[in-house]
Amino acid sequence: MLFLSDEINKTGKQNHSDFDFSFKEDKFPHVITFGEQVLESERTDYNEIFKLVKKSVKKFLGKERTGLGLALSNLPNTIGAYWQLGGNYIVLNETIVGYMRSATHTTKEFNSFLFTILAHEYIHSVGYVDEMEARRMTALVTRMAFGKDHIAARIGSSDLWQLYPSLLLLPSGDGSRMKIINKFDSDATSYIT
Ligand SMILES: [Zn+2]
């Protein structure tokens, strides 16, 4: 689950120590062009972005799983997305996704946001159940896939609510509505917006 961390609730500031981990980038080649065109695209293709998430996690963490689908729900504004342990769907906060589409300055930034939020949940689903570990792994994967200066790496190494504080002003839902978008991994038509 990608959620607003307690540190922000209490102090209005993020404690960055959660994301401090030793990371020797020199040990790995920067894969700057590793799927970059998917994020650079002028369109948003959820299937392509999720394929890139899977490819990146497999390459950098050596883990994978199949059979996950995507759904949208009216979640509380402090929850960006969740994957239920053992579940078959990654559920994104529809209000946050809608807001991010208009708040981001470029399609690349929006696609990078989607990459990061999907990567976080996918990383949970391949076995990183602990929240802090999932956040560290998300930071690692985004940095290794795109380089540390890429917008996806900046989002992946930080807290979404700190980067986009207006998220806290969005209406908060209760998860009562759920819209299934697709089954990832199937050959069904891509969901493109
Ligand atoms: Zn999480």
What do you see in this structure?
The structure is a single chain. The chain has helices spanning 6-11, 36-40, 46-61, 94-103, 107-125, 131-146, 151-156, 160-163, and strands at 2-3, 69-73, 79-83, 89-93, 178-183. Helix 3 (46-61) crosses helix 5 (107-125). Strand 3 and strand 4 (89-93) form a beta hairpin. It has a 5-stranded mixed β-sheet with strand order 1-3-4-2-5. The chain has one domain (28-183). The protein is α+β, with helices and mostly antiparallel strands. The longest helix has 19 residues, at 107-125. It is 42% helix and 12% strand. It has 8 helices and 5 strands. It binds zinc ion.
Summarize this structure briefly.
The protein is 42% helix and 12% strand.
What topology, given as strand order, has the largest sheet?
1-3-4-2-5
The backbone outline, from C-alpha atoms, is: globular
Largest sheet entry: 5 strands, mixed
**Strand runs, count:** 5
Q: How many domain units?
A: 1
* Fraction in beta strands: 5-15%
